[in-house]
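Question (not urgent): is this output format expected?
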Amino acid sequence: MTRAGSSGAMPELNGKGLRIGIVSARFNDHIVTALRDGALRGLERCGVADNDIVEHWVPGAFEVPLAAKVLAETGAVDAVICLGTVIRGDTPHFEYVCEAATRGVQEAQMSTGVPVMFGVLTLNTEQQAIDRSGPGIDNKGDEAAIGAVEMALLLKTIRNY
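Got this back:
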């Protein structure tokens, strides 16, 4: 029996040669741009080359899953990072958008077999969004990038058994 990755420790992540897609929502773009910057920092730390990153912007979080799915279906990327921000307002619109984005991102990865990382913030306040999109490694875009590299490498290993 082969036991790859049997420990709970974070593996060494060498993303050299991986192709990564980023789908970002323009709505709340001041936050999403900071998430995108975090994702780019995370990919750089993992050795993903700038020319191996493809970026697409969509109107809002509701549209992120479709773009992610179509990008994954092209076979041009090893993983997709989805970025967006949905901040609770006074109407039920928040719940509908959050549920659709969450379900859509999961469906995109399950139907394509390509890792599609959920970096869509679903928050109660703008301050919470600011706190999760700062310049450090706790930036949720950075976390999504690290997860994308880890999952892309894992699936390459599994598929090569």
